[in-house]
DNA sequence: TAGAAAACGTA
DNA sequence: GTACGTTTTCTAG
């Protein structure tokens, strides 16, 4: 090795832990072998090696080795038996991956280095020293702070997951001390994850400050008496020896007796087939193809069976000192590539292109005059597809001001299939200079006047022959609608992704970009700041704004290119086109209408609740015998189960006393006064803080109404969610709570109409599981819970004791939730054994339900997802988890999803049709709110009856014609001047 | 000041 | 036992 060489040292052990937690869980499709960290590792190595092949990149490795920990028995353990003693067993899903990562390293033909008695960090330190002596540079692929002490002008670090170089400046920025003082800093702070003691009460900030003042650890310890702060001085004096011990523990050994010569790390050309065999065995299809292309090997010629990838003993790395080996299992080939131009092949190819394309920030345009904007729009229009994104002053589309907008398109070469680089541009409209105060805030020059730009935008956005692409179109749709523009003909990348991947991960742009493009977009807070220093987008510097906004449009277009073909490949086109995309306008209209809320009613209730809570608080403190924060479950638990020594206390997951309402009710049932008062107090304060106090703040000053925001792509099952404010959890169960509903009112001359599905989920269950008894009961209009009770307990429906019916009802709900004895027992406050008996009896009487539940689980295990009756998918990637808790949870969720999701699809179908149906019937009322199985309308007094008829009709027939329900859907509707009475 | 945990409101 | 969002408290930084 010599001067111009560059050694890369990959911290293999550090990487695997970090990747395991940071990357989405991934399992090998054919057998559920967890391989997420291995996949991340292979991608990372391939990227490093790609840079090595590409000489245009600045830093390229000539030598590379991957370093691992051998075992936890190291010389540090001798020095200090407590070292790393607090480490728990690695997660089960990680265990097979230790061995696989070593296999992967070998498949890459890279040296796989480990040494008994030493940690990877010591080997890295030693090799970095050897390289430096040879005059070569070293890059350590790790972000571990323990390695930062090694940074010198010739040794730097690289965080591969954040794509960030870590040099001297970065160390100083992060820790406040230069690399050569990291050892001293760590000696003071210690390290809780490794159980390095340090000095109590000294954190990184204090340590850096002390080292700044005294220079180094020895000086500091020697002159500790001079420290002014009492506690700090005492600690440093008392724990000086502990600091010295810590120093020994954190100092990396640069003279480890390494066995391999640096020259043996020299990079050789890639052995394509060997690597491909491994990657195919792992079922990393994207990377397999990439490697095949780069090495000129033919992937289909390589037989993965030539590598033995086992996840039994052979795959277990020496990272583990003990633990039982899993069943050995040899990997099988699973190559579905046919090479034909099928929708699936197209989707794969597009995803490939998207993942490999580079995003070039320097190519973005900023359109500052009409000529430039016109030219850009004209060119975009040519292609027929344009990505669009608005930049505004607020996340609330009903309050936001339009600050600018970005567009992106990809020029097509008319003759060939080839296409040019994506063109992306930002048009600033009302950016301001300086601070937002009396002096600053003047409009920046050379921005197109808003109305002129809007006029041009309108023709583009309303042109049905140009497809507009947005990420979360509902937001931009609302912004534009408020400016008199109704976007027509659009796709939404968030909704496409949701149709394909609900349950897989987030559907936000950043998540999608990382998932599909392997690119991390500029964070909003990077341009607009965060917390105190945050500014609205109109105060962002135009140059920065351009890069950020144009990138968003650019990324959106790329996502569309990658995702749209997947819809066809996965058979999800109609889910997207019938259940997702039409909801954009439907919901946007509802949000824009808002609902009227009576301030006076809320304010009066607020006062009542405050009075009630204050009185209760006094009683509570008297009963408790001391003043305490009643709102603190921690303090309350201590009083009830500590001071008062009440029996029956249980602890929460984090070890605190549980004080849930259920627990308190139990105590109240024993005749205690205090717990009941707490429950009452909590109810009143909850109602006050969450509803009566908060709701008035959501009244829009311009419209004088409350505009909630519905999230279309946030649930796994297909339900909507509502926020800011959440109008899907307005109280209804208690009399006190219902008072809040009286504040939701119709405008004068109008009524609120509430129409809700009766038992829709049980009806869906009867349909999907095809249960004769249930179908008949619904067809005959029976009381379904009484019927269930009668079947189970042999009691006639007539004169059914309420308690028996209550239990049957709980069981019916339990079935929908993927019943467990534990849950049912909890719900009914009965022993688990009794709950088990109930479930057994239920399944004996309704064996079809058990069959349905079993087949749903089997389907989920096989495919990784379940489907609603309309084909919507909900993914459960952890359904095969080796952790029984996680697995069971996923099984229950998978059982629930087709039921909850089908019901959600049904009401979506109704919502999509209802506006047109009202129009058709010449009705002027409109839909305002959705609460999962209920729709709320506002209709003129004289149209109430007709509105109820239309809504009921549409809702009851919403499944048709796609699905003919085997049970009738029933809707109850009524009208009143407030929501409480209408419901 | 940001995030986790606990609690609780809805279907 | 399913699916959510918001509030308060408390801790860590």
UniProtKB/TrEMBL annotation:
Domain Exonuclease: 384-569
Domain 5'-3' exonuclease residue range list: 2-268
Origin superkingdom: Bacteria
Gene Ontology biological process terms, A to Z: DNA-templated DNA replication; double-strand break repair
Residues of the 3'-5' exonuclease domain: 364-568
Catalysed reaction equations from the record: DNA(n) + a 2'-deoxyribonucleoside 5'-triphosphate = DNA(n+1) + diphosphate
Pfam families registered for this protein in UniProt: 5_3_exonuc, 5_3_exonuc_N, DNA_pol_A, DNA_pol_A_exo1
Record keywords, A-Z: DNA damage, DNA repair, DNA replication, DNA-binding, DNA-directed DNA polymerase, Exonuclease, Hydrolase, Nuclease, Nucleotidyltransferase, Transferase
GO molecular function: 3'-5' exonuclease activity; 5'-3' exonuclease activity; DNA binding; DNA-directed DNA polymerase activity
Top-level enzyme category: transferase
SUPFAM superfamilies recorded: 5' to 3' exonuclease, C-terminal subdomain (SSF47807), DNA/RNA polymerases (SSF56672), PIN domain-like (SSF88723), Ribonuclease H-like (SSF53098)
Its biological purpose: In addition to polymerase activity, this DNA polymerase exhibits 3'-5' and 5'-3' exonuclease activity.
NCBIfam families membership: pola, PRK05755.1
Subunit structure, as described in the record: Single-chain monomer with multiple functions.
Protein name per the record: DNA polymerase I
């Amino acid at each position: 090795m010599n001067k111009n060489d560059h050694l890369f040292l990959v911290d293999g052990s550090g990487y695997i832990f970090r990747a395991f937690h940071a990357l989405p869980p991934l399992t090998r499709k054919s057998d559920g072998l967890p391989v997420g960290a291995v996949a991340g590792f292979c991608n990372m190595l391939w990227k490093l090696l790609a840079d090595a092949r590409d000489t245009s990149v600045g830093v390229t490795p000539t030598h590379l080795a991957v370093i691992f920990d051998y075992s936890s028995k190291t010389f540090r353990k001798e020095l200090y038996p407590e070292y790393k003693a607090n480490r728990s067993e690695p997660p089960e899903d990680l265990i097979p991956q230790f061995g696989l990562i070593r296999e992967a390293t070998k498949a890459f033909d890279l040296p796989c280095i480990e040494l008994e008695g030493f940690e990877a960090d010591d080997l890295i330190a030693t090799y970095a020293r050897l390289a430096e002596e040879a005059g070569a540079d070293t890059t350590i692929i790790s972000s571990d702070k323990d390695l930062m002490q090694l940074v010198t002008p010739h040794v730097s670090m690289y965080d591969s997951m954040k794509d960030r170089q870590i040099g001297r400046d970065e160390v100083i920025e992060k820790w406040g001390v230069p690399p050569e003082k990291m050892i001293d800093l760590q000696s003071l702070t210690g390290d809780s994850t490794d159980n390095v003691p340090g000095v109590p009460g000294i954190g990184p900030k204090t340590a850096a400050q002390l080292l700044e003042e005294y220079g180094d650890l020895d000086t500091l310890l020697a002159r500790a008496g001079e420290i002014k702060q009492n506690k700090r001085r005492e600690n440093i004096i008392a724990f000086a020896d502990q600091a010295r011990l810590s120093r020994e523990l954190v100092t990396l050994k640069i003279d480890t007796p390494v066995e391999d010569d640096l020259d043996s790390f020299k990079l050789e050309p890639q052995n394509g087939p060997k690597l491909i065999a491994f990657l195919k065995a792992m079922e990393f299809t994207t990377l397999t193809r990439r490697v095949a292309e780069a090495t000129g090997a033919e992937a289909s010629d390589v037989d993965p069976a030539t590598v033995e990838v086992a996840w039994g003993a052979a795959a277990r790395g020496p990272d583990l000192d003990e633990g039982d080996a899993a069943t050995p299992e040899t990997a099988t080939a699973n190559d579905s590539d046919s090479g034909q131009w099928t929708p699936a092949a197209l989707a794969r190819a597009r995803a490939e292109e998207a993942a490999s394309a580079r995003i070039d920030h320097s190519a973005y345009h900023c359109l500052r005059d009409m000529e430039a904007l016109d030219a850009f729009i004209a060119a975009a229009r040519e292609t027929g597809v344009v990505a669009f994104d608005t930049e505004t002053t607020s996340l609330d589309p009903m309050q936001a001001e339009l600050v600018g907008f970005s567009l992106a398109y990809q020029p097509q070469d008319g003759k060939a299939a080839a296409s040019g680089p994506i063109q992306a541009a930002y048009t600033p409209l009302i950016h301001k200079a300086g601070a937002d105060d009396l002096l600053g805030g003047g409009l920046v020059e050379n921005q197109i006047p808003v109305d002129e730009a809007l006029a041009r935008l309108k023709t583009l956005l309303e042109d049905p022959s140009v497809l507009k692409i947005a990420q979360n179109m509902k937001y931009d749709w609302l912004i534009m609608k408020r400016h008199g523009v109704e976007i027509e003909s659009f796709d939404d990348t968030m909704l496409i992704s949701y149709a394909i991947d609900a349950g897989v991960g987030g559907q936000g742009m950043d998540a999608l970009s990382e998932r599909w493009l392997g690119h991390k977009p500029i964070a909003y807070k990077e341009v607009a700041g965060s917390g105190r220093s945050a500014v609205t987008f109109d105060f962002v510097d135009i140059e920065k704004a351009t890069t950020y906004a144009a990138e968003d449009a650019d990324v959106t277009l790329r996502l569309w290119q990658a995702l749209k073909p997947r819809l066809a490949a996965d058979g999800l086109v109609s889910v997207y086109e019938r259940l997702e995309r039409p909801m954009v306008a439907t919901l946007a209209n509802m949000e824009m209408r808002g609902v009227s809320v009576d301030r006076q009613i809320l304010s009066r209730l607020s006062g009542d609740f405050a009075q009630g809570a204050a009185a209760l608080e006094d009683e509570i403190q008297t009963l408790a015998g001391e003043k305490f924060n009643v709102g603190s479950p921690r303090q309350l638990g201590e009083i009830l189960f500590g001071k008062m020594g009440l029996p029956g206390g249980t602890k929460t997951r984090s070890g605190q006393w549980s004080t849930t309402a259920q627990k308190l009710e139990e105590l109240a049932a024993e005749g205690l006064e205090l717990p009941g008062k707490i429950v009452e107090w909590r109810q009143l304060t909850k109602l006050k803080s969450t509803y009566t106090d908060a709701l008035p703040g959501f009244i829009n000053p311009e419209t004088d109404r409350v505009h909630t925001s519905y999230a279309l792509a946030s649930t796994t099952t297909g339900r909507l969610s509502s926020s800011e404010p959440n109008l899907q959890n307005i109280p209804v169960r208690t009399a006190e709570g219902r008072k809040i509903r009286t504040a939701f009112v119709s405008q004068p001359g109008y009524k609120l109409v509430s129409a809700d599905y009766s038992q829709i989920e049980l009806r869906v269950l009867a349909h999907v599981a095809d249960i004769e008894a249930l179908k008949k009961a619904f067809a005959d209009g029976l009381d379904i819970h009484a019927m269930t009770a009668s079947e189970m307990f042999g009691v006639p429906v007539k004169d059914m004791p309420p308690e028996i019916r209550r239990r049957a009802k709980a069981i019916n709900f339990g079935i929908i939730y993927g019943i467990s004895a534990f849950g049912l027992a909890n719900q009914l406050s009965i022993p688990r054994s009794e709950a088990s008996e109930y479930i057994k009896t239920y399944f004996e009487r309704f064996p079809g339900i058990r069959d349905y539940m079993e087949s749903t689980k089997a389907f989920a295990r096989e495919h990784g997802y379940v489907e609603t009756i309309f084909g919507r998918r909900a993914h459960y990637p952890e359904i095969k988890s080796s952790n029984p808790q996680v697995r069971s949870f996923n099984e229950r969720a998978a059982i629930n999803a087709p039921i909850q999701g089908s019901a959600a699809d049904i009401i979506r179908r109704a919502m999509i049709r209802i506006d047109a149906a009202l129009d058709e019937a010449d009705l002027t009322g409109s839909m305002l709110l959705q609460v999962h199985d209920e729709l709320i309308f506002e209709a003129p007094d004289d149209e109430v009856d007709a509105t109820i008829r239309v809504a009921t009709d549409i809702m009851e027939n919403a499944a048709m014609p796609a699905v003919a329900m085997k049970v009738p859907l029933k809707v109850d509707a009524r009208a009143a001047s407030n929501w409480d009475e209408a419901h």
